[in-house]
Give the backbone structure.
Amino acid sequence: MDLRYEFYIGGTPEQVWKVLISPEETKKIYAGCVIRSTFKHGDPLQYVGPGLEGNETVHVYGTILEFERNKVFSYTQNTGKAYISNDKNYESRISFRLEPAGACTKLTLIHDQWSEKDPSYENSKKAWWLILCNSKSLVETGKTLDLGVDNWHDELVVQPE
C-alpha cells in the first residue's frame, strides 16, 4: 500500500530542495498551494491555497518529523477538513530523500503508514505523479507543465463526507 517514487532530476540537491520547501516554488508545483512551517522537528506544517473553502483552504496539514537541509524532509500528513470531515482518523507519512547522482539529484518520495481505508489514497497516487513531474520540469526548465487546468487538485480531492 506504500507509494514510492524515484525521479532523477537534472539539478543540484539545493535546487530540488528549494522547489520542495520554498513557498514561492511549492505554489508552482502544488497548483497554487504554499507550504507553511518553521521546519523544526515537532512543529506544524500546512499546504494552503485555493480550493473548496477559498484562497485559504488547508489542503494538507501535519507535523514535521525530520528535516535535514538538502537531504531529508519528512512529515505526517492529514487531508484538510475541506475534503474529509473526520481527517484526524486518516494520518500517513510523507518522506522526501535527496541524493546526488552525478550531475543530477535522485529524489525519492515515500508516502507510507496509511490508515486502513484512507479515502485519500487513490487520489494521492494520482497527484504525486503530477507534483513530481512538475518538480522535475521546474528544476530543469524553470517552468511547470501545462496540465490544461488551473487547479488540478480540485479534480483529485476526496469529497466531504
